[in-house]
User: Fold this.
Amino acid sequence: MKLETKVKINNLLMKNLLYGIFHGGNNPLLRPILFPVVEKGIWLALKNVPGPVGLPGVIQDKFYMLRAMVYSGIRFGTTSKFTDTIISKAILSNLRAEKEKEFREKFGFDPPGFMTISPAKKCNLRCKGCYANSASEKDQLPYDIFSRVIKEMRELWGARFVVISGGEPMMYKWNNKTIVDIFKENPDSLFLMYTNGSLINEEKAKIFGELGNVTPAVSVEGLKETTEQRRGKGFFERIVNTLKLLKKYRVTYGISITATRDNAEEIVSDEFIDFYFNELGAAYAWVFHYMPIGRDIAPELIPTPEQRVMLWRKSWEIVRDKKIMYADFWNHGPVSDGCISAGRPGGYFYIDWQANVYPCVFFPYAAGNIKEIYENGGNLNDLINLPLNKKIREWQFKYWKEGDLLRPCPIRDHYMMAKSFVLETNARPADEAADKILKDPDYEKKMLEYDTELAKKTSQIWEMVYRNGSRKAI
Ligand code: SF4
Assistant:
């Protein structure tokens, strides 16, 4: 059977299966029948379409993560509207299959799957070290460009998943249009919005619940003390109130965490997991390891290579044993078949408040600018072959065959290579700090030490767990 047909059959199977599960999973009488069917369905789908890497341990990781995702949806009691947005419209729609074909004929590979957009740099908080502290009113993406990008993602790629980041997206305002207008005008797109949570009041939570196409991921740094150390006294209660409001209006929400050398142990502790998932009922967590970019660059805050391996181990215990969707952006490279930047198949680009386009949120060198592309008569497809994006994708495709996906990140785990791509393609630094680190031997030395140490630590795990599929003794 052709791979394309297999993908279509799998999508159809998954779609119906997930519908049944999400709607029937809350019924305790149906669970013993449904759950084994779900697990079997996921396993079969992955075995039939193993993805470009397809190693035994990679398939296992994908299985555990997808299963946790389904169980998290059931535990949260995801609404029909939200389920419908995810399954029928945003993720498994037929539109995607059609557009994939058109795109493949033109570019030779599948289109990107989503886009991350930071429409506003400004924020209502003044957290330590955050770039948004210095934002001006002008640092905002014009509404017509914002809307057009979302429309073109749908038309050119069949992609309807949009990640909104910041600054604080709830602060965005352009000629009386806000982020809520974007959600309302695109009912068939799914929006994952990273937010500090402080501007989501009862009215907004109710609107999000009614719309059913928004899932806020609220930032936390850990439990009360750690969160308030960075965000200020009294802030923890505000976050907890926001999460309760979201729960009240049945808005599927998650948490987002920046892992640092200081909080690495806390964010995988039983206490932390119990509090956010069992007590407050979060549906998922996204973990981003501190990246030394932006203002107040501090490489010493990156979790150490030892902590990174500890986070890998613990995060899989949470996903596998507790069946909680706890996604670690760097450590779970095997789930996404490695780096998802630079518009690779199913991957993404990042657009900031000045319409600059980057391969990734954490790659502070712009490949181009979408406003300029539009002014010159182009469209979103013109991002694909910008020199920096092309270079990174060539590396990604090669890395699928040779690489260790526990070190998927060009800019963090292969710093010298990423730097050479930036210099060769004349990519534009996002800010003064990004320019400065390109010329800073000390920064380079620290990144190199980190990369070398990490490679030593992960290579054994990669061989044993991923190539051989054996988790024993790890
Ligand atoms: S560049 Fe790094 S952080 Fe960005 S998608 Fe790739 S692996 Fe992830």
